[in-house]
Design brief:
Layout: H1 11-22, H2 48-62, H3 65-84, H4 97-158, H5 163-193
Helix pairs in contact: 2-4
């Protein structure tokens, strides 16, 4: 009686079963092998760098005398118009509440923009200071290296014969030769006076 062999699963079926087990969502994040789906944001997206540059331009303009002159001129025209213009053309009667509101609104926007520009400037200063610190460290290291090299050269030159030392040695040698030349003729004359063969 032939025994029936159990059906073996093909590799494709095993892979499908394994992938089927992994397709189940894992917690609130879902699958880890796939990118997350983008979420809708309530706030509009913007480029922080572009906004920072724009705020810096505004802060620079607010810190100039031209802005103060323009703001003074606008306030004077505003006040004079709302005092001397016909009543149907005035939009802000005394005590100029709308003007006060506009100035307050301008101040409330100017302060954060100035702070943002200051923070950006602080970041630039921090980067500049870090670069200067690294440059100073490199300069100090180069100075120490050059100092050690100069010290080693001085020590090496201390063992090298200098011109003055060679001159003094030559003078001593000439002096010794002169003394030997003075003594040598006396010995030669003394030798000539003596007979070559002594008498017996």
């Amino acid at each position: 009686m032939a025994t029936e062999r159990p059906d073996r699963e093909s590799p494709r079926e095993r892979a499908a079963a394994a992938s089927g087990a992994s397709t189940a969502p894992r917690g609130p994040r879902g699958r880890l092998d796939q990118p997350r789906t983008p979420r809708r944001r309530l706030l509009p997206e913007y480029d922080p760098e572009a906004f920072a540059r724009f705020s810096e331009r505004i802060a620079r303009f607010l810190g100039t005398g031209r802005f103060i002159a323009w703001m003074t001129l606008v306030i004077i025209v505003w006040v004079l118009w709302n005092i001397f213009a016909p009543e149907e053309l005035r939009w802000d009667e005394y005590p100029f509440i709308f003007l006060t509101l506009m100035l307050s609104l301008q101040a409330s926007y100017a302060a954060p923009l100035i702070l943002l520009a200051q923070n950006r400037q602080d970041d630039r200063d921090r980067v500049t200071q870090e670069q200067e610190r690294k440059q100073n460290e490199r300069s100090i290291a180069d100075t120490e290296y050059l100092t050690r090299e100069i010290a080693s050269l001085r020590m090496g030159l201390g063992e090298v014969a200098t011109r003055d030392w060679i001159r003094s040695e030559l003078q001593d040698l000439v002096r010794d030769l002169a003394e030997q030349h003075v003594l040598l003729p006396a010995e030669q004359t003394r030798g000539r006076d003596e007979p070559d063969h002594p008498e017996h």
